[in-house]
Amino acid sequence: MSLPHATSGDLINIAPLGDKFEGQVSHAFLKTEHVELMRLVLPAGKSMPDHWVEGEVTLQCLEGAFELEAHGKRQTVRAGEMVYLGPKVPHALHARENTSVLMTVLLNQRNSTQP
């Protein structure tokens, strides 16, 4: 069963999952023509293989820590930290511990800037 997407004015709970982490899965909170907002749930040791997306991306670590491989380097992103990736930047994630990440993707940017 998929979770419903938020609509304008809805509160979205992005609090750390803490002791409710087990059994949780990644899901989209919101998707519109121009933005997608997701919580990525990565149990310790799990990886998201190298990939890229069309739009600009932010990855905000809500809890835990993950290794991010992008731009030819590896860096650790910890709870309370966020990283920005430009469009089509290849990247991979590897959870060092149980981790949840708030991912924002800007969609259809070319269409939004054309008259």
Automatic annotation (TrEMBL):
CDD domains: cupin_HP0902-like (cd02230). It comes from the Bacteria. Pfam families: Cupin_2. Residues 40-104 form the Cupin type-2 domain. The lineage of its organism: Bacteria, Pseudomonadati, Pseudomonadota, Betaproteobacteria, Burkholderiales. InterPro entries: Cupin_2, RmlC-like_jellyroll, RmlC_Cupin_sf. This is Cupin domain-containing protein.
